[in-house]
From TrEMBL, chain A:
<keyword id="KW-0496">Mitochondrion</keyword>
<comment type="function">
    <text>The H protein shuttles the methylamine group of glycine from the P protein to the T protein.</text>
</comment>
<protein>
    <recommendedName>
        <fullName>Glycine cleavage system H protein</fullName>
    </recommendedName>
</protein>
<dbReference type="InterPro" id="IPR017453">
    <property type="entry name" value="GCV_H_sub"/>
</dbReference>
<dbReference type="Pfam" id="PF01597">
    <property type="entry name" value="GCV_H"/>
</dbReference>
<dbReference type="InterPro" id="IPR003016">
    <property type="entry name" value="2-oxoA_DH_lipoyl-BS"/>
</dbReference>
<keyword id="KW-0450">Lipoyl</keyword>
<dbReference type="InterPro" id="IPR002930">
    <property type="entry name" value="GCV_H"/>
</dbReference>
<dbReference type="InterPro" id="IPR033753">
    <property type="entry name" value="GCV_H/Fam206"/>
</dbReference>
From TrEMBL, chain B:
<feature type="region of interest" description="Disordered">
    <location>
        <begin position="173"/>
        <end position="218"/>
    </location>
</feature>
<dbReference type="InterPro" id="IPR004562">
    <property type="entry name" value="LipoylTrfase_LipoateP_Ligase"/>
</dbReference>
<comment type="similarity">
    <text>Belongs to the LplA family.</text>
</comment>
<dbReference type="GO" id="GO:0017118">
    <property type="term" value="F:lipoyltransferase activity"/>
</dbReference>
<dbReference type="InterPro" id="IPR004143">
    <property type="entry name" value="BPL_LPL_catalytic"/>
</dbReference>
<comment type="function">
    <text>Catalyzes both the ATP-dependent activation of exogenously supplied lipoate to lipoyl-AMP and the transfer of the activated lipoyl onto the lipoyl domains of lipoate-dependent enzymes.</text>
</comment>
<comment type="pathway">
    <text>Protein modification; protein lipoylation via exogenous pathway; protein N(6)-(lipoyl)lysine from lipoate: step 2/2.</text>
</comment>
<dbReference type="Pfam" id="PF21948">
    <property type="entry name" value="LplA-B_cat"/>
</dbReference>
<dbReference type="GO" id="GO:0005739">
    <property type="term" value="C:mitochondrion"/>
</dbReference>
C-alpha cells in the first residue's frame, strides 16, 4: 500500500514538475510557452481557496466558493487506518464550535476516535445518511462520507496541508 | 559538604513546614510526572473502587501523559455495568434491578449484589460487568506503534507465566480460555499468544464472538477479558477486564439481558455476548504479573535496567485534581449515561394496537399509534387516537427525556377512561422506565 502510494506520489510530482518547468528545448520566444505558465498560476491561485485542506488529525475541510461555509470529513488514510466503521456520532445542528473541539466521534473495531474541527463556527448540517449507513465512510470518506457542514468564523487554526503535503505527511508516519 | 547539606536540609524542613496545603503538591506531582517526557514508562494502581473516578483518572492519563510514554493503570471497581460509548442502556441492561434498595417501584431483587452503577465509558465496544473479583488493566501508549493485539498479548504472557496455559487472544482482541481436551500432539509455538494446545481447529470465530458453541454443545472457549480502545491524535488507550474471582458470574445474565430488547431497534453498537469464566487468580498476584510483563515490554522508566518498577498508588483523594473532577462529574450525569444514546425506536403491541416511540438524543421525538388489527400498518386516525386517550399520552411524552420519566410517572400516565391507554402506559413504563434516576442527579450535587 505504502509502496503504491509513494509511486503514485512520485509520478504526480514528476508530471507536475514537468508541466511547470519551461522546457530548455523550446526557445524562450515561443508564445505558447510564455503564456501557459501565467494561466496556470492564475488558475492555481483561485483554486487554492477552495481546494481541500487536511489536518494532522486526518480531517479534511473544503471551503465553499464564497468562503463562508465548509464541509468537513475524515481522510481516506484515516478511514483505512480505523478499519470497519460501525457508528458515527454526528454533531448536532446549530451547535457552536471552536477550533480544536471534538465535534463527533467514529467507532470502529471497539475503538472510539474523536473527530476534531480545525475551524470555529456553527454546524448547519450533519450527514444523517451516515446514521443508517456508517460503512459509507469507509467507501467514500472524502465524498459521500462527509460528516458535517459548517458556517465558518475565521481561519483554520493549526497546521493545514494541501493534498500533496498531507500525502507526504502520512507517508512519513 | 556536610555543613551545606545540613543547611539545605534545614531549609527544606522549613519550606515543608510553611507549605500549608501539602495535598495539592501530591496532585500536581501526578500530572507533572505524567507529562514529563523523561518518564517513559509508569505504572499506577488505584485503591479506589469508584468506577466513575477510575475511568476519569484513566482519561486524565490519556490526555495528560507525555506523547512518547507508556502508562499502565490497574483498577478494580465495585459492582457496576460499563456500557460502550455508543451503546443503548435500555437495550443492553436490565435497568430495573440496578437499584434494588432505593426505589420502591423496582421489581423484586433477583440477586444479592445490591446497588449496581451504570456507567457509560468513553471508549468503544460492548457492555461489561465489573466487580471486586475483576481487575481492569489499562495501557496508554503512543498511537503510532500501537496495535489492537499487543497489550492483550502482553496480558496473556503474564497469565501463562502464572500457569494459565489455556489463555490466548482471539480474533476480537479479547482473551479467552480454551476449553476441552488437548487438540494437537505437537505443541504450538509457546510465543504464539493466539494459539494453545487446546485451541480447536474447528473454531467458529468472527460473528459469533469468542467461539462459544460449535452446535454440538461443546464450549470451545470462555472469555476472561474484553478489550476496548480510545484513540486520540498521538495516543492509544487500550483497556480490558480480567475476570479473576467474580462471585457474580451466575447473575450476569440477569443484569445484561434487557426485557425491552425485543422491542427496540437501535443504531449504534450492540454487544456480542460470550460465555465467561473466572481465571481463579488473586487480584494482587495478577496485578504483579501484569506489572512484570509491562516492565519487560517498556522498561521500568528509571533507566537503571533493574526492571523493578514499583507501581504508584492512586486513591479517592485524586478527585481533587480539577480535570479528574470535571471528567468525574460529567460521567455521572444522566445526560452522558442516557442522552448520549444513539437514535432508537421502541415498538410494542398492546391488544390490537401498536405504539411506537422514536428516541433521539435520549428525547422522545415522536409517538405514533397503529391499528387496530388489520390496520396495523396504518397510522391511527387522529380522531380515534383522541377518543382512546392516546393523543393525550403522546402530548405527555413528546419532547421529554426518556430517562426523566421514572417508574412512578409511568404509573401516573396509566390512568383514564381508556383501558388501552392504561395498558400501554403500564407496559411501556415497565420496559423503559428508569428507576432511581432522580437520586442519580442528587448524588452529584452532594459532592
Amino acid at each position: 500500500m505504502a509502496a503504491r502510494l509513494s509511486v503514485a506520489h512520485a509520478t504526480r510530482q514528476l508530471t507536475s514538475c514537468a508541466a511547470r518547468r519551461p522546457s530548455p528545448f523550446i526557445p524562450a520566444t515561443c508564445q505558447r510557452w510564455q503564456r501557459a505558465p501565467l494561466e496556470r498560476r492564475l488558475f492555481s491561485v483561485s483554486a487554492a481557496i477552495k481546494a481541500k485542506q487536511y489536518t494532522e488529525d486526518h480531517e479534511w475541510i473544503e471551503l465553499s466558493a464564497d468562503g463562508k461555509t465548509c464541509t468537513l470529513g475524515i481522510s481516506e488514510y484515516a478511514a483505512n487506518a480505523l478499519g470497519d466503521v460501525v457508528y458515527i456520532e454526528l454533531p448536532q445542528v446549530d451547535m457552536d464550535i471552536s477550533a480544536g473541539d471534538a465535534i463527533g466521534a467514529v467507532e470502529s473495531v471497539k475503538s472510539a476516535s474523536d473527530i476534531l474541527t480545525p475551524i470555529s463556527g456553527k454546524v448547519f448540517e450533519a450527514n444523517s445518511a451516515l446514521e443508517s449507513k456508517p460503512a459509507s465512510i469507509n467507501a467514500d470518506p472524502e465524498g459521500d462520507g462527509w460528516i458535517a457542514k459548517l458556517q465558518i468564523d475565521g481561519e483554520p487554526e493549526g497546521k493545514m496541508m494541501t493534498k500533496e503535503e498531507y500525502k507526504a505527511f502520512t507517508e512519513e508516519a | 559538604m556536610a555543613p551545606s547539606r545540613g543547611l539545605l536540609h534545614t531549609l527544606n524542613a522549613f519550606l515543608r513546614s510553611v507549605r500549608h496545603k501539602p495535598p495539592r503538591r501530591k496532585y500536581s506531582t501526578f500530572s507533572e510526572t505524567l507529562s514529563n517526557p523523561a518518564n517513559k514508562a509508569q505504572t499506577y494502581i488505584s485503591r479506589s473502587t469508584d468506577p466513575y473516578l477510575n475511568l476519569s483518572i484513566e482519561d486524565h492519563i490519556l490526555r495528560t501523559s507525555s506523547p512518547s510514554s507508556s502508562i499502565l493503570f490497574l483498577y478494580t471497581n465495585r459492582p457496576s455495568i460499563i456500557i460502550g460509548r455508543n451503546q443503548n442502556p435500555w437495550l443492553e441492561v436490565n435497568l430495573r434491578i440496578l437499584r434494588p434498595n432505593t426505589d420502591n417501584d423496582t421489581v423484586a431483587p433477583e440477586t444479592n449484589i445490591g446497588n449496581v452503577d451504570l456507567v457509560r465509558r468513553r471508549s468503544g465496544g460492548g457492555t461489561v460487568f465489573h466487580d471486586l473479583g475483576n481487575v481492569n488493566w489499562s495501557i496508554t501508549s503512543p498511537r503510532l506503534s500501537f496495535t489492537r493485539d499487543k497489550h492483550a498479548e502482553m496480558v496473556v504472557r503474564a497469565l501463562r507465566k502464572l500457569g494459565v496455559s489455556r489463555a490466548r487472544v482471539n480474533s476480537r482482541h479479547d482473551i479467552v480460555l480454551d476449553q476441552g481436551p488437548r487438540q494437537s500432539h505437537r505443541d504450538p509455538d509457546p510465543e504464539d499468544m493466539h494459539r494453545t494446545p487446546y485451541t480447536s481447529s474447528t473454531l467458529f470465530e468472527g460473528s459469533g464472538g469468542s467461539g462459544g458453541d460449535d452446535g454440538g454443545g461443546i464450549v470451545h472457549a470462555r472469555k476472561v477479558s474484553g478489550s476496548a480502545y480510545k484513540l486520540t491524535r498521538h495516543r492509544a488507550l487500550h483497556h480490558g477486564t480480567a475476570l479473576l474471582n467474580s462471585p457474580n458470574l451466575e447473575f450476569l445474565g440477569s443484569y445484561l439481558r434487557s426485557p425491552a430488547k425485543s422491542f427496540i431497534e437501535a443504531k449504534g453498537v450492540e454487544s456480542v455476548s460470550s460465555p465467561v469464566a473466572n481465571l481463579g487468580i488473586g487480584n494482587g498476584v495478577f496485578e504483579k504479573a501484569v506489572c512484570g510483563e509491562f516492565v519487560a515490554m517498556y522498561g521500568d522508566g528509571n533507566g537503571d535496567g533493574e526492571g523493578n518498577l514499583e507501581p504508584k498508588i492512586v486513591d479517592n483523594s485524586y478527585l481533587h485534581i480539577p480535570s479528574v473532577k470535571k471528567g468525574y462529574d460529567e460521567l455521572r450525569t444522566a445526560d452522558w449515561t442516557y442522552t448520549q444514546t444513539p437514535h432508537f425506536t421502541f415498538s410494542l403491541w398492546v391488544m390490537e394496537y401498536r405504539i411506537q416511540l422514536s428516541i433521539r438524543h435520549g428525547t422522545v421525538e415522536s409517538v405514533d399509534f397503529f391499528g387496530p388489527g388489520t390496520a396495523m400498518l396504518l397510522a391511527m386516525p387522529e380522531s380515534r387516537a383522541n377518543d382512546l386517550g392516546l393523543h393525550e399520552l403522546r402530548m405527555e411524552l413528546l419532547g421529554r427525556k426518556l430517562q426523566d420519566i421514572g417508574g412512578s410517572e409511568w404509573e401516573a400516565l396509566a390512568v383514564g377512561m381508556s383501558a388501552l391507554r392504561v395498558f400501554m402506559a403500564k407496559k411501556v413504563g415497565g420496559l423503559l422506565g428508569v428507576p432511581g434516576v432522580e437520586g442519580f442527579e442528587e448524588e452529584v450535587d452532594d459532592r
